[in-house]
Amino acid sequence: MFAGTTRKRRLSMLLVLLLAICVAVISSAEILMPQATGKKVQKDGNLAVDSSNAADGYVMVRAKKGNKRLKVVISVGGSSLKYDLNNEGEYEVFPLQFGKVNYTVTLYQNVSGKKYKEKGKVTVSPKGMEDELRCFLYPNQYVNYTADTPCVLLAEEMCKDMTDQAEKFKAICKYVVSNYSYDFIKSVTVQAGVLPDINYCWDKKMGICQDLSALTCAMLRSQGVPARLVIGTLGSGTPHAWVMAVVNGEDKFFDPTAELNATNKTDSYTTERWY
Q1: Are residues 84 and 197 in the same domain?
Q2: 161 φ, ψ to 5°?
Q3: 3-state helix vs strand vs coil in the chain, percent to 5
Q4: In what order do the strands lie in the sheet with 227-234?
Q5: What's the CA gap between 157 and 255, in Å, rounded?
Q6: Domain coverage including residue 84
Q7: I want to staple 217 with a disulfide (CB 3.0 to 4.6 A). Which of 57, 199, 223, 227 is the partner?
Q8: pLDDT band at 216, cuts 50/70/90?
Q9: Given a cut of 60, is residue 110 above it in pLDDT?
Q10: Whole-number pLDDT of residue 205
């Protein structure tokens, strides 16, 4: 009898341990990170595109290592988005934010001055994509974070007892408005083409529109709330960035810059692109 009781107790402890492991795995899996798994790699010239996870809304792109500046152009129909690409031969993630359509990925290498030459081109078809919002749950160049990024760790702590997307959205937006300010000096000194800097925003507790919006998106995405970083213009044409999240299936607009009274809330918004 005692031996049977001991076995039952051990089995019970084992089940508890397995449950704890499963919970830990589920918890860590909530923060989705892109991977170049190598299951499907398309190559042309100096270009390599790992489209193994295209159904999840992203591709991993790299070029042969060199000392020339590189650019990647991702095109859909008549629309195209231009990105810088590192020349270290390392993969970088790029979103497939237009959904279930064919994408053309083209690599360009700097020749001289502002002249670039095509060095490779492939077409990616995201077969099996079921959720066109899934790409807005991963980091990319414009919303650049890891599982260890401080704002992501804070979001995990803030939302640990929350299950409703609306509750998470409200808490994260409130945190940003309550703890950050607009960086007016950076707004007049920043150079064109500079990417959002989430870590700068976190460290200084301030940022320009794209920094504040990227930080908000990182926190939301890490908690399973799809969030677009939208780039466009404000009013009569002032460059601007804001957040458009999808909360329980509904679009939710959030402009941290306006909430911090650095822009006029009554201004009109014109969308140009989103990441």
Answers
A1: no
A2: -105, 10
A3: 35, 30, 35
A4: 250-254, 238-247, 227-234, 269-274
A5: 23
A6: 41-129
A7: 227
A8: very high
A9: yes
A10: 98
